[in-house]
Amino acid sequence: MEKNIQFSNKDRKEVLQKLSKEKFDVLVIGGGITGAGIALDAASRGLKVALVEKGDFASGTSSKSTKLIHGGLRYLKQFDFWLVKEVGSERAIVHKLAPHLVLPEKMLLPLIENGSYGKWLTSIGLKVYDILAQVSGDDKRKMLEKKEALKLEPLLPKKILKGAGYYAEYRTDDARLTLENIKTSLNYGATVLNYVEVTDFRYKDDLVAGVEVKDDVSGEKFTINASYVISAAGPWVDKLRSVNNSLKGKRLHLTKGVHLVFPHEKLPVKQSVYFDVPDGRMMFAIPRGKITYVGTTDTDYLEDKDQVTTDLADAIYLISAVNNMFPGINLEMEDIESSWAGLRPLIHEEGKSASELSRKDEIFTSETGLISMAGGKLTGYRKMAERVVNQVAQKLKEEEGREIPECKTETISLCGSDFKKFKHVKQYIKEIHERIAGEGFGHYQAWYLVTNYGKQTEQILDNYQNIKAKDPEERMILAELEFGLSFECILTPLDFFIRRTGRLYFDIHSVRQFSEPVLEYFRKHFNSDKKQIDAWREELE
Ligand SMILES: Cc1cc2nc3c(=O)[nH]c(=O)nc-3n(C[C@H](O)[C@H](O)[C@H](O)COP(=O)(O)OP(=O)(O)OC[C@H]3O[C@@H](n4cnc5c(N)ncnc54)[C@H](O)[C@@H]3O)c2cc1C
């Protein structure tokens, strides 16, 4: 595994200077999974790349998904065979690039009386899914009898259950997948920074030749020069197209998706379930360590893109759907431990409702040369990046006679991974558990460290030796924070608790318990004043 490159907000000034002084082949707007994938693809083909993100990396949609690397079974119903084939095949590739972060996850699809899918249709559907995604061996779909399905998931509704489909998907942490792509792009020379917002474009001979930006920390404005600008701004793509005066033709159609988190003991599913909702939609219930999360909703969204929240109606919809499918469970509002709400940046299609819209990605190039990428899925990020960088490579060939090599991201392991197979990840979790058990840590902590950081766990355990704190858990969380401050460009406590560690969603008690020592560590690290610390505390609360 390559050694991590320093990636710290303490070096902010130097990085800002580099962005303002140098000229780049490609400037990417947006540090979600789309932008991160593009930065890695372009940098690894030898292009000089810069990426700026207006908030934190993955703070848009890319930390708010269902966190599945999946083929999208339901798109078969929409006859979107091309999409299922592409994202279905990508699953195994993305798993191979980071087996500790993209974990195999078997999915159970219960067949119930009057449900969306009958036995025959499910069997055929899953078979087509397997064929399109070239699934082989043990991962091939199985059709289960009622008894077998209940053995796997005793909470299913006995009275109306008729059997189940059982098939293979993968689960990830979307924000960490984004971040590891960004960190890997640094190994190929990309220049990347968060909290820098693109406010306008710079033109030369009527063509986009760079961007005007504002540094969110100092408030300073400056220009970044680049031959090509790719907007991977997700839900904000049309806003930037407006700034570029090119918002015509196809437009985005934003739909909101909400997930709720419950303590695992309140919704103790043994395994992931993809189930029917009475209104004809489908939903996931996914167990993950100490919690189970459920989602999602899919409703049209026209409000503020920077303030997307979970409403009462979203929560009622999700809770009723769960209580309907798992009759022994009686979830209530008070059981909600955490939640997240995100926007799908889909392409508008006349007359289609939110859930009918295709998830296919598209590239728009304006008359002035702004390239925008929208739509798509987390799962397909690598192929999306390949498509848009191919277009830039073609232009560089035509305009400058440069030969740009083909995409090679299929062979670039992401930071944190030097596991050949998933069984090596499991062995490593066991090894880490043995190493930290003496300090009172259980299997959960070892599993959490490895599935979050992979082999970078070594650096966190090194930090652990140097951190002075009595409580081992506090010491470990500060060891993680030290790693994130040095190698993951953390600027605020929310960057740490949401997008570097997922703790706000998956272990909210640890946030409550350790927010004060974490704030104190920030104070020392950035020499922050009381006003700043109070503001961060309020944000956390
Ligand atoms: C509820 C839900 C569930 C989903 N579940 C799945 C799933 O399980 N599997 C799957 O494959 N896909 C899933 N998706 C789809 C997937 O999450 C998205 O396709 C993907 O995250 C979009 O990434 P992005 O990078 O295009 O957008 P974003 O992640 O939103 O990134 C765009 C970034 O651009 C930045 N930006 C915007 N304007 C500017 C500017 N002016 N200057 C600088 N930066 C700017 C934003 O801050 C943002 O971080 C789901 C989506 C939703 C909403």
Outline:
The chain is built from 17 helices and 18 strands. With 541 residues, the protein is an alpha+beta fold.
Largest sheet: 10 strands, mixed
User: Mind telling me the C-alpha Rg?
Assistant: 23 Å
Bound molecules: flavin-adenine dinucleotide
Secondary structure: number of strands? 18
CA-to-CA gap between the ends?
38 Å
Range of strand content: 15-25%
Bin the helical content. Answer: 25-40%
SS element count, helices? 17
Average pLDDT figure: 95
| Oligomeric description of these chains | single chain
Low-confidence stretches: none
Shape: globular
Question: Any overview of this molecule?
Answer:
By secondary structure, the chain is α+β, with helices and mostly antiparallel strands. It has 17 helices and 18 strands. It has helices spanning 12-21, 33-44, 81-97, 119-132, 146-152, 174-186, 237-243, 312-325, 381-400, 422-436, 443-453, 457-466, 472-487, 493-500, 503-506, 508-526, 530-540; strands at 23-29, 49-53, 68-69, 103-112, 142-145, 161-171, 191-194, 196-204, 207-215, 221-231, 252-263, 272-276, 282-288, 291-295, 299-300, 338-347, 362-365, 371-374. Strands 3, 4, 5, 6, 11, 12, 13, 14, 15 and 16 form a 10-stranded mixed sheet that branches. It starts with 11 loop residues before the first helix and ends with a helix. The structure holds flavin-adenine dinucleotide (FAD).
